[in-house]
Amino acid sequence: MAAEIIRAVLFDFDGTLSDSEYLHHETWLEAAADWGAAVGWEEYARRFVGISDRNACRFLLEKAGREPTDEAITAGCLRKQQCYRRRSRVELTVDERVVEWIRAAAPQAPLGVVSSSAVADVVPTLERYGIADPLQFVICGDHVARLKPDPMPYLLALEKLREHAGIEHAGDCLVFEDSATGVASAAAAGMTVHRLAAPARLAEALEQWAPKIDALRSR
């Protein structure tokens, strides 16, 4: 059951704030080209969205008939990260309507980003769109021992919200997620979850929820 009053809003990054999954797909193909492992978009969307880079690399190595040693996985992830970071700094976008919403809402309501991706894959895009500073915090895969679908990332977010905003109840936090793993993580932490079909739907979803966001209801 959805909370009647929302006191904080949290966003996943990949596939939620930014339409980045296509770029993850393309850069994995680039990184694994020498292995002879190819994954079409439908298979990628079914198997890869929401999983860690190491698990993605393991799958590609096995598909190519290669042994997924720690060394091979580390090298493959590094190749993919280099490709992704080179392109993401110029290609990734955030809907201007969402940017405006975050800038307007941040002084009144606690906002944060909770992602399994690395800081280097998330923060540059937030900074480029001027929404890194307005956020109360950005939690990335570098900050936790266990990634989504484990609830740890969202439990860490709740700790920060308790400390800095006095929010005690997880259900008062609204989470926007696109993947099954992200939804499972937020739900296991006890938060209210809105699953997006696509990043293009986020602006509409924010307007839908605005009447329930406590700090914004008088606007």
Can you describe what's shown?
Strand 4 (173-177), helix 8 and strand 5 form a beta-alpha-beta unit. The longest helix is centred in the middle third of the chain and has 22 residues, at 70-91. A 5-stranded parallel sheet has the order 3-2-1-4-5, covered by helices on one side. The protein folds into 2 domains: 8-19 and 92-216, HAD superfamily/HAD-like (Rossmann fold, 3-Layer(aba) Sandwich); 21-91, Orthogonal Bundle (DNA polymerase, domain 1), CATH 1.10.150. With 219 residues, the chain is α/β, with parallel strands linked by helices. Helices cover 47% and strands 9% of the residues. The model has no long low-confidence stretch (mean pLDDT 94). It has 9 helices and 5 strands, in the order E-H-H-H-H-H-E-H-E-H-E-H-E-H. Helix 1 (21-31) packs across helix 4 (70-91), helix 3 crosses helix 4 and helix 4 packs parallel to helix 6 (119-128).
Secondary structure layout plus pairing:
Blueprint lengths: L7 E4 L9 H11 L9 H7 L5 H11 L6 H22 L4 H10 L5 E4 L4 H10 L8 E3 L12 H14 L7 E5 L2 H9 L3 E4 L6 H8 L10
Parallel strand pairs: 1-2, 1-4, 2-3, 4-5
Helix pairs in contact: 1-4, 3-4, 4-6
Quick gist of this model?
The chain has 219 residues and is an alpha/beta fold. 47% of the residues lie in helices and 9% in strands.
Total number of strands? 5
Count of folded domains: 2
CATH architecture of the largest domain: 3-Layer(aba) Sandwich
Shape: elongated
CATH topology of the largest domain: Rossmann fold
The SSE string, one letter per element, is EHHHHHEHEHEHEH
Overall pLDDT metric:
94
Q: How would you characterize the largest beta sheet?
A: 5 strands, parallel
Radius of gyration over all CA atoms, rounded: 18 Å
The top-level CATH class of the largest domain is Alpha Beta
**What strand line-up does the widest sheet have?**
3-2-1-4-5
Query: What is the H level of CATH, i.e. the homologous superfamily of the largest domain?
Result: HAD superfamily/HAD-like
**Could you estimate the helical fraction of the residues in percent?**
40-55%
How much of the sequence lies in strands comes to 5-15%
- Ends distance: 25 Å
The structural class is alpha/beta
Question: Which blocks of ≥5 consecutive residues have pLDDT under 50?
Answer: none
| Annotation field: number of helices | 9
